[in-house]
Design goal:
Blueprint lengths: L2 E5 L2 E4 L4 E8 L7 E7 L6 E6 L6 E3 L7 E6 L4 E6 L8 E8 L14 E4 L3 E6 L1
């Protein structure tokens, strides 16, 4: 049984930082790309960032470039999201996801391309 468990969410002031972690079990971690999505109240789930298994590179949503960083540890089966300079509009539930998305067509942006999901962790950014 695959499990993805997020942690590290909380309340932070605008301009502050948070580090989220996702612990994976029940899957061959190194054979999956690992991504973070977020969903704000009343909005659709949106892509944030993905770490590509093949070369450990990252693909970012434009809105987070220069502020968010993703890292993975294949030995520990974990992926982390470092979020700096947070903005109030980034208040959302953040989800960890695992999959093998396509990149040539921008498929990695789509939640449907990820097989496994965590339950999410709440991030609240106050003014």
């Amino acid at each position: 049984q695959v499990q993805l468990v997020e942690s590290g969410g909380g309340l932070v002031q605008a301009g502050g930082s948070l580090r989220l972690s996702c612990a994976a079990s029940g899957l061959t971690f190194s054979e999956h790309d690992m991504a973070w999505f977020r969903q704000a109240p009343g909005k659709e789930r949106e892509f944030v960032i993905v770490n590509r298994r093949k070369d450990n590179s990252a693909v970012y949503a434009d809105s987070v470039k220069g502020r968010f960083t993703i890292s993975r540890d294949n030995a520990e089966n974990t992926v982390s999201l470092q979020m700096d300079k947070l903005k109030p509009e980034e208040t959302a539930v953040y989800y960890c996801a695992a999959g093998r998305p396509t990149y040539y067509d921008g498929g990695y942006y789509l939640a449907t391309q990820y097989y496994y999901w965590g339950r999410g962790t709440q991030v609240t950014v106050s003014l």
